[in-house]
């Protein structure tokens, strides 16, 4: 039998066919995998060769930080698998605040596993409100999606800005729209909602964020193939440019798949050292030796990104050019 933690979305995907019921509890995680060498992709073909898609995404790696801090640009952060309350989480949070002094982003999207362990009021304080207090005080808004370790009641927590919804959409600027999904139980109602929202959006940039990665080189979890079967056709059809996920406790930028750029940012508080399997061939850049978060800036048709470690090191940077919707309304 496959446990919920090993393949968290199989239950709800089976519900699409009416073949399963939802289990009551997730199992506890297994012990941390032994450390391996730091992840850097070998020069070989991807395990899943990307199919041709209209207006393929282009990613230009950068040897220097590409964030230009232009007036009027959309600046945002990405954080996942973070709420431990440990010193390492606070140290990465300090790097986020340090960046904010020179790059004043006003939005952070959370890709799930927002709190580990108990979720009492004091836990929300020590695992979220205190480490990110300088950002919250500066008016930064955090938008959460839920992971397999998160109680669904988190959707009512005011500082997660979910407005009581398990899945939702928001648009900080007219040309950019984010779609937050609940990927542990992606019930048919949510899939229908997503297709309607994607089809109706006229934003140039469509960015989807949720917990379980469609593409990942994680040795512990890896790609969620069942979830990919359901979501990827919608992303391709409706012009999604970027997908942000977590679950595997490291940072990975995946080589563009069917024109879409996928990021795994599950390194906000938890870390599985050496857990990126470099033999998958899908890793454009991987970092699994320390915690890290991502910052991004959208200007026109480009999204610059920079990934910063707990030590303040830039571990990845580049520019993504958005996809254009075939048939042409954007």
Runs in which pLDDT lies below 50 for 5 or more consecutive residues are 1-54
CATH fold assignment:
Purple Acid Phosphatase, chain A, domain 2
Overall mean confidence score, pLDDT? 84
Structural class, please?
alpha/beta
| Pattern of helices and strands | HEEHEHHEEEHEHEEEEEEE
Summarize the main sheet: 7 strands, mixed
Strand order of the largest sheet: 1-14-13-12-2-3-4
Query: Helix content range of the residues, please?
Result: 10-25%
Question: What is the terminal separation in angstroms?
Answer: 46 Å
What's the level 1 CATH class?
Alpha Beta
Number of self-contained structural domains: 1
CATH superfamily: Metallo-dependent phosphatases
Topology:
Elements: H1 10-16, E1 58-61, E2 74-79, H2 87-102, E3 107-110, H3 121-129, H4 133-137, E4 141-144, E5 168-173, E6 176-180, H5 188-200, E7 205-209, H6 225-237, E8 242-245, E9 251-254, E10 261-265, E11 283-287, E12 292-299, E13 302-309, E14 314-321
Helix pairs in contact: 5-6
What is the gist of this entry?
This protein is 19% helix and 23% strand. By secondary structure, it is α/β, with parallel strands linked by helices.
């Amino acid at each position: 039998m496959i446990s919920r933690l090993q393949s968290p979305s199989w239950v709800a995907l089976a519900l699409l066919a009416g073949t399963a019921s939802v289990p009551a509890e997730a199992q506890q995680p297994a012990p941390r995998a032994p450390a391996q060498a730091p992840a850097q992709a070998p020069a070989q073909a991807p395990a899943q060769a990307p199919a041709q898609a209209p207006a393929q995404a282009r990613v230009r790696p950068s040897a220097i930080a590409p964030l230009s801090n232009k007036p009027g640009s959309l600046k945002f952060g990405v954080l996942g698998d973070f709420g431990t309350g440990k010193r390492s989480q606070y140290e990465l949070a300090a790097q986020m605040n340090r960046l904010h002094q020179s790059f004043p982003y006003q939005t952070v999207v959370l890709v799930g596993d927002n709190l580990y362990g108990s979720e009492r009021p004091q836990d929300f304080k020590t695992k979220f409100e205190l480490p990110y207090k300088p950002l919250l005080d500066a008016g930064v808004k955090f938008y959460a999606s839920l992971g397999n370790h998160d109680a669904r009641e988190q959707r009512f927590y005011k500082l997660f800005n979910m407005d009581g919804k398990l899945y939702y959409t928001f648009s900080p600027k007219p040309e950019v729209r984010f779609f937050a999904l609940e990927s542990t139980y992606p019930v048919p109602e949510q899939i229908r909602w997503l297709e309607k929202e994607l089809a109706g959006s006229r934003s140039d940039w469509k960015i989807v964020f949720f917990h379980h990665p469609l593409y990942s080189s994680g040795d512990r979890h890896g790609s969620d193939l069942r979830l990919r079967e359901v979501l990827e056709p919608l992303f391709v059809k409706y012009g999604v440019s970027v997908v942000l996920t977590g679950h595997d406790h490291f940072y990975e930028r995946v080589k563009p798949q069917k024109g879409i750029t996928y990021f795994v940012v599950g390194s906000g508080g938890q870390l599985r050292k050496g857990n990126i399997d470099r033999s998958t061939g899908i890793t454009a850049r991987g970092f699994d030796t320390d915690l890290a978060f991502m910052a991004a800036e959208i200007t026109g048709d480009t999204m610059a990104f920079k990934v910063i470690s707990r030590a303040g090191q830039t571990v990845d940077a580049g520019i993504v050019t958005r996809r254009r919707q075939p048939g042409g309304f954007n």
